[in-house]
Structure formats: C-alpha cells, structure tokens
Amino acid sequence: MTCICASRKQHFELHPDEELPQFIEVLIKLEESGDYGLFRCPSCQQLWIIDIHSRGPLAVKVQSKSAFAAFDDIPYRKDLLTQFYGGLSAERCIQSGCEKNALNGIVFCIDHAMEW
Q1: Helices (DSSP H) in the chain: which residue ranges?
Q2: Residues whose CB is less than 8 angstroms from the CB of residue 41 and which lie 6 or more positions away in sequence, other chains included
C-alpha cells in the first residue's frame, strides 16, 4: 500500500469501524498505553499517536517517540470540535463568568460545551 502520511492533516478523526482499521493496518505499532498507541509508517517513518479504543479515534502526527509519554489529546479534540461547529461565533458563552466566544450554533464556548 502506498504511503499517504504526507497528504494527511496534522490531526484528524477516523471512523472507528471503517477508517481506523484501514489506516493502522499498514503502520507498525511501537507502544501502547491506555487508549493510545504509538505507530510508525514503514514507508516514510512518520510517527502517529492514535486513539485506538475510546471516544472517536483520533490520529496525531508527532515528531518523536518522547511525544507519546507526554501526550494530551484535549487540545486536538477541542480544535476538531471547533472546526466541526464552523469556528466561534461573535456571541459570548452563556456560562456564568465566562468571557470566551461561543461555538457557532450553540451557546457555550469550547470549554463549556463538553466535559474535558
């Protein structure tokens, strides 16, 4: 199979039943911890951290193996959710005391829209 790492975004979600198996079948698993695995592409050597067990598989390109030990999925998940809603609106979040802009189409900011 041809390497497609360069054409993939820095981070993205995979459908757990359709895309995830196809994506990881060509990669080499280097480590696993909890819901995440560290994988390497045998063609281009790109490293990936992939959520293989939990709430919507997430794939993130990383530069080194050390990124796996300190990996935090929250910033990536927040970015994907913000993209899903089409960005931020001009309206403020309705959570008491919050000054952040709400996500488009809903009344809460990214921090109050989900339990992180």
Answers
A1: 19-25, 66-69, 74-84, 110-113
A2: 3, 5, 26, 27, 28, 47, 48
The string of pLDDT tens digits covering residues 21-66 is 888 899 999 999 988 999 999 999 999 999 987 767 899 999 999 9
100 plus 57 within the same structural domain:
no
79 shares its domain with 66:
no
Q: Residue 79: what are its φ and ψ, rounded to 5°?
A: -65, -45
Instruction: Tell the burial category of 90 from Cβ atoms under 10 Å away from its Cβ (0-12, 13-18, 19+).
Output: exposed
Of 79, 85, 109, the closest CA to residue 97 belongs to 109
What does residue 89 show for φ and ψ, rounded to 5 degrees?
A: -90, 175
